[in-house]
Amino acid sequence: MLMQIKNVRKQFNGVDVLKNVNVDVQKGDVIVILGPSGSGKTTFLRCLNFLEQADEGTMQFDTLHLDLSHTSSSDIAKVRKKTAFVFQNYNLFANKTALENVTLGLTAGRHVGKSEALAIGRQALDKVGLSDRYDYYPAQLSGGQQQRVGIARAIAVKPDVILFDEPTSALDPELIGEVLRVMKKLAEEGTTMIVVTHEMKFAQDVATHVIFMDGGVIVEEGAAEDIFVHPKHDRTKMFLKRIL
Ligand code: ADP
């Protein structure tokens, strides 16, 4: 087991946003988290690499055993070294080129030497189909290209798991496909991923495990077929009816 996440609870302003959320992640899993807006999907993802602090919960991550509500800064740093986060709004530095955005996490974050970082960065950009855009600034790139830089930045650090937070929801419809294709390729290569998304076809085609959340709890989970073809719970059925 790569990650075993147990009993995550989180409140905002006294309101439960996550309650008793448990997720197991094996190496190579593509876990897709679905659910209506406000159901806690993003908060859960953010608790995993401490962009939010859970009020309760534990995480076993490889050899680390963590209390998510009381984690030392050195353990937080260790988890962040093993994870990469792909944001809905890309979170690129506007004043840095595509290549600089990708190499920064290597040179500043992981003390990789400059020439090695450049080689890794170019390779990562090649992989997401941006070999002709190394020196472009974010403003000179389409949203789909910016998000592919975001993905290149994630793969460059060779994380154990990549966390994707609605990676295509800020994109115009015609740009979504190029990002999903890159993600599908990573999945096929065995990259471990946890993906919050509303892209149902991606979930059906690529997920090894689908989790449906509503109201801060996991209502139902299973193989894509279990959720999409044989959903058991009314809330899952209603959600799918609305979205498909
Ligand atoms: P989802 O990703 O499923 O749309 P979120 O995790 O973004 O859901 O949000 C779950 C709930 O937590 C929502 O009611 C949202 O308004 C609330 N929430 C999220 N982040 C914050 C925050 N930083 N402060 C207060 N409330 C928040």
Keywords, separated by commas or semicolons:
244 residues; alpha/beta; Rossmann fold; six-stranded mixed β-sheet; four-stranded antiparallel β-sheet; 9 helices; 40% helix; globular; binds adenosine-5'-diphosphate
In short:
The chain is of the alpha/beta class and 244 residues long.
Structural write-up:
Its main location: membrane. This is L-cystine transport system ATP-binding protein. Keywords: ATP-binding, Cell membrane, Membrane, Nucleotide-binding, Transport. One of its GO terms (cellular component) is plasma membrane. It is found in: Cell membrane. The chain is an alpha/beta fold and about 240 residues long. The protein has a single domain, classed as P-loop containing nucleotide triphosphate hydrolases (Rossmann fold). The chain has nine helices and ten strands. A six-stranded mixed β-sheet has the order 6-7-8-3-9-10, sandwiched between helices. A four-stranded antiparallel β-sheet has the order 2-1-4-5, with helices on one face. Strand 4 and strand 5 form a beta hairpin. Helix 3 crosses helix 4, helix 3 runs parallel beside helix 5 and helix 5 packs parallel to helix 6. The chain is globular. The relative contact order is 0.17. The structure holds adenosine-5'-diphosphate (ADP). Adenosine-5'-diphosphate binds next to helix 1. The site of adenosine-5'-diphosphate (ADP) has 10 residues, from helix 1.
